[in-house]
């Protein structure tokens, strides 16, 4: 039986925590920041958790995670 492969794009973007949650970064904060408000940019800082409705598909991409 061949090994299950990890999606290389997913392993760069997600980290599975010890508690079982999946850590992710924020979208919309890389460029074109001049037209975004200071409040919106501040709220995009830090790490976030993948929503429960998306967690199943992320786990399928990270079989060894």
From TrEMBL:
Q: Which GO biological process entries does UniProt record here?
A: translation
Region annotation (Disordered) maps to 37-65
| Assigned GO CC terms | cytosolic large ribosomal subunit
Keyword hit for Ribonucleoprotein: yes
In Gene Ontology terms, what is one molecular function of this protein? structural constituent of ribosome
Q: Which Gene3D superfamilies match?
A: 4.10.410.60
Top-level division of the source organism's lineage: Bacteria
Q: Give the record's keywords alphabetically.
A: Ribonucleoprotein, Ribosomal protein
Give the record's family classification: Belongs to the bacterial ribosomal protein bL35 family.
State what protein this is by name. Answer: Large ribosomal subunit protein bL35
Provide the taxonomic classification: Bacteria, Pseudomonadati, Pseudomonadota, Betaproteobacteria, Nitrosomonadales
